[in-house]
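Aim 2 progress. For 2-oxoacid:acceptor oxidoreductase subunit alpha, the working sequence is reproduced below.
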Amino acid sequence: MGQTPTIRHTKVLFHVPQQLSLPRVVIRFAGDSGDGMQLTGDRFTAETASFGNDIATLPNFPAEIRAPQGTLPGVSSFQLHFANFDIVTPGDVPDVLVAMNPAALKANLKDLPRGGVIIVDTADFTKRNLAKIGWDANPLDDGTLEAYSVHAFDLTGLATGAVAGFDLTRKDASRTKNMFALGLLSWLYSRPVDGTLEFLAEKFAGKPVIRDANVAAFKAGYAFGETTEHFEVQYHVDPAPMPKGRYRQISGNVATAYGLMAGAYKAGMQLFLGSYPITPASDILHELSKRKDVGVMTFQAEDEIAGIGSALGASFAGALGVTTTSGPGMSLKSEALGLGIMTELPLVVVDVQRSGPSTGMPTKTEQADLLQALWGRNGEAPLPVLAAKSASDCFDTAVEACRMAVKYRTPVIMLTDGYLANGAEPWKIPDLEAIEPIEPNFATAHNATTAKGAPSFEPYRRDPETLARAWAIPGTPELEHRIGGLEKGDLHGEISYDPENHERMTRLRQAKIDGIVADVPDIEVDDPSGEARVLVLGWGSTYGPITASTRRLRQTGRNVATAHLRHLNPMPANLGEVLAAYDKVVVPEMNLGQLATVLRARYLTEVSSYSRVRGLPISITELEADLIAEIDALGKEN
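Predicted structure tokens for this construct:
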């Protein structure tokens, strides 16, 4: 790389690194659960977003409240992909690994490509800690890392020295090492610092010693980068071109919370959330509980059943009832979901999917609740199912779920997953006034007459276009009616055991959901050449890996088409036609082929299932290689 330039002064020799621009970088911060890696990654992300780069993140942490310190199960990591162009995933593998202890190094080393950069804290590389993770020798000395560019520093010691002037215990002083590392990486990748300084001032406003020590450690890390001669290059990643507007960094859970608030606002209804905390959905409850200022009411229930019961009760009373959960909680909510279908009341259920079954891997991602969402209830119990494709898309999907629930008087399931929930990306803040209003159309007057000609109210008289029943808020004069889980008589809503009535009501409830297809836009196919023979069809968070891998494929000159489903029930009217137009349809999913099973049954067409259930997003590199094999095999057939 040539001789490193220096600037000579009278007393001090300053090291001036080479300046290098990069289009993209993937950094992974990894350490013990108590090392603050999620906070470090989040702060680096926030500054990167404010700088104007496109970003995508992947937090990855253990489910245990506190795994044994220094062990492999206790490793927590945060991966950030940032670029000067549009990106759609947090990247398969890191370019840079920041490892705060031996366990973090060992757990993540297999993902780092040859030539990758390792910045490692040497403080804990003792014989005891190495033995704890099965290393007999120190990898910093035995040649294990010779294929990588290694920068080994005693970050803990440097941070402790930087805060020596503060009245801190040895333990508290060592905890500032994450801020020292953040300062160093902020210098190395030319990140802004003001936002982090403001964040620390606000977060520790009530603890001035902790605040000042963390600020000192952060500044010391930045200064260390400027003055050390270990780094020959300082990197720059220019801002990404984006449409004009006001942006913020947003996670899927926060976007979902905002979408629910926007949906209730556009309907002129109070938002009521009844939920039981469960990983990885709890942040939606946390976010909405802060928003009493805009009329949001939240109730932390004692269990999943109480959560959905309270939300359904709120809908009965005229509010927009919402409940949030993950896979195990969906199982518990199934009976009350059936009650919502029978009473035909609006209800939004957000399922943030995680690895199962049972407790499974609660902090890892998966897409294995699709069949449960579609059919996991007793009896014929149809309802709409939507899935968000990205963290920012959670907002739009949540608004649509609210609209659908209110318009069609039905529970709606919105699927996200742990990857979307905790991952973050830039989000262009929408104009609320540009979002179409949602009309609840409450019943306020009689809608029928008795046999004697007197005015009456029939709660199951339906809108001829939507088949939605009349919705009267309790207490509306003269619109008293009976409601509950027993089968309803058509129109009048009284309890009915008549066989013909049950079949009619069952078919009406199904027809109402089927009719929602009128509001579902046709699926759009991205096929630039118009000559592709392979269609890659995704749903939910597979959007990112599918988009990234097919971009690469097209750069090799191969033709491939893509399409993505938000509406999983009912599906777009033109989907069967689209499937029939291609010789091969590949469906990547983080399950064992659930959507593929549904498509085969519904459209009587063969699709190729591409399944991964590792608790991680689908690998871009692996998907690209497998799609190349599919495309090239078709070409050889000719």
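The CA atoms of residues 261 and 294 lie 8 Å apart. This observation will guide construct design in the next reporting period.
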